[in-house]
Amino acid sequence: MIFDDKKINSILLENNSNYNISISIASAITADARIHMSQFKHLDLLYSDTDSIYIKGKLDNKYIGTELGKMKLEYILFEAIFLGPTVYGGIINNKTQHIEIIKIKGFKYNVSFDLLKSLLIKDNKLELKQDK
Predict the structure, then answer these.
(1) Are 53 and 36 in contact (CB under 8 A)?
(2) CA pair distance 50, 66, nearest whole angstrom
(3) Do the Cβ atoms of 82 and 47 come closer than 8 Å?
(4) 45 Cβ partners below 8 Å, 6+ apart?
(5) Contact partners, residue 126, CB within 8 Å, separation at least 6
(6) pLDDT tens by residue, the chain, 132 residues
């Protein structure tokens, strides 16, 4: 759905909007998530977002679980690179598997960990193209 200025003003300013959107509730949820995530800032933090953290070391088991507010342990990474918000990668490496995890927001094609790692070298660039 494409929003022009008139639709955006209707959503933001009018009470009779046809859209099921509540900016104040969405903002409150995001703010509460940031407050909740702030308790992990004292750890050896490598990267965080509103719903995830990457730390050096082990997270105390009291924070991990399936209950609301608990963290889900998704990966234990052998090596990781964090280049910017939602641009990062890592390697799961143990005796049975060597899997690369690459996250680039808005990009759907595969990028290798080595390619991402090459961006740590001064003046190296990577141009990614995709069809939308």
Answers:
(1) no
(2) 18
(3) yes
(4) 53, 54, 55
(5) 111, 115, 116, 118, 119
(6) 566 777 766 666 666 656 677 788 889 988 998 888 888 888 898 888 877 889 888 888 998 999 988 888 888 888 899 998 888 999 987 777 788 988 888 887 788 888 888 888 899 888 877 776
